[in-house]
Amino acid sequence: MKRPISLGILGWFMIVTSAISLVELPLSLRNPLAVEMLSRSLLPVWATLAVGCVSALFNIVSGIGVLKGHAWSRTLYVAVAAIGLVVSGISTPFKGLLIPGVVLLAIFSFFLYRPAATAYFHRADA
Fold first, then answer.
1. Residue 92: strand, helix, or coil
2. Contacts 24+ apart (CB under 8 A), 90-98
3. Which residues are within 8 A (CB) of 31 and not within 5 positions of it... i.e. 6 or more apart?
4. Per the UniProt record, which residue ranges are transmembrane (predicted)?
5. I want to staple 62 with a disulfide (CB 3.0 to 4.6 A). Which of 6, 77, 93, 109 is the partner?
6. Assessment of whether the complete model's pTM goes beyond 0.85
7. Contact between 64 and 18 (Cβ < 8 Å)
8. Backbone angles phi, psi at 43, to 5 degrees
C-alpha cells in the first residue's frame, strides 16, 4: 500500500516546521520584544525555550515516523502536541495564541487517524 499523499505532506510539514523552530527559538533571544513576551510566562525564559526545543525534536522524530509508516509516530505527535497545549495554557498569559494550536491538532489528528491512514500504518507495522 502506498503512503497517502496527506501523510507525506503532513510528515514533511512536521519535519520542516520543527527544524525551523529549532533554529528560530534560540535566535529569538536576540529580539528584546520576544524576550519581554517570553518573560511574561509563568515559566522562566530558559524553560519555555527548552520545552519548545524538546517539542520540536519530538515532532521531527514523529514526522520521520509518519513518513516511514510507524503507527507510534502519530500517537507521539498527538501526545506531544496535547501536552504542549496544556503547558502553554497553564503558563502563557496570551490564551488566544492557543487557538491555532488547537485547530492544527484537530486537523492533523483527523489526517493521522482517518481510515486510509490507519490502514497504511497497520500495513507498515506488520
1. coil
2. 90/42, 91/41, 91/42, 91/43, 91/48, 92/40, 92/41, 92/42, 93/40, 93/41, 94/37, 94/40
3. none
4. 45-67, 74-91, 97-113
5. 77
6. yes
7. no
8. -90, 150
Looking up cell 497504511 gives 120
Residues 70, 63: Cα–Cα separation, whole Å: 10
Per-residue model confidence as pLDDT tens for the chain (126 residues): 789 999 999 999 999 999 999 999 888 888 888 888 878 888 888 888 888 899 999 999 999 999 999 999 999 999 999 998 888 888 877 777 789 989 999 999 999 999 999 999 998 555
Q: Which residue has the cell 525564559?
A: 45
Tell me the C-alpha distance between 28 and 20, whole Å: 12
Containing H/E element for 1?
none
Q: How far is it, in rounded angstroms, from Cα 115 to Cα 82?
A: 22
Cell of 19: 527544524
